[in-house]
Write a structure and sequence with these properties.
Layout: E1 3-8, E2 14-18, E3 37-40, H1 44-57
Antiparallel strand pairs: 1-2, 1-3
Bound molecules: zinc ion.
Zinc ion binds near residues 8, 10, 32 and 34.
């Protein structure tokens, strides 16, 4: 299933969304519910997804 990364134009938040065919025109920001979002089409989202999750779950107070 395709998971795309989006950036919200309103609150500038990045989020990932599971998008089925034909539903990519009704994406709304989970933070502010704005539909003014940009789909990030970079190929790095595939590679970065697993790495990003590791980074975000890593405790920030470790250092
Ligand atoms: Zn937003």
């Amino acid at each position: 299933m395709p998971i795309f990364e989006y950036t919200c134009n309103q609150c500038k938040k990045d989020f990932e969304k599971l998008v089925f065919a034909g539903e990519d025109k009704n994406i709304s920001c989970p933070n502010c519910t704005s539909k003014d979002v940009i789909k990030k089409m970079s190929a790095t989202s595939f590679m970065g997804a697993s790495m990003g999750k590791c980074a975000t779950t890593f405790p920030k107070g470790a250092s």
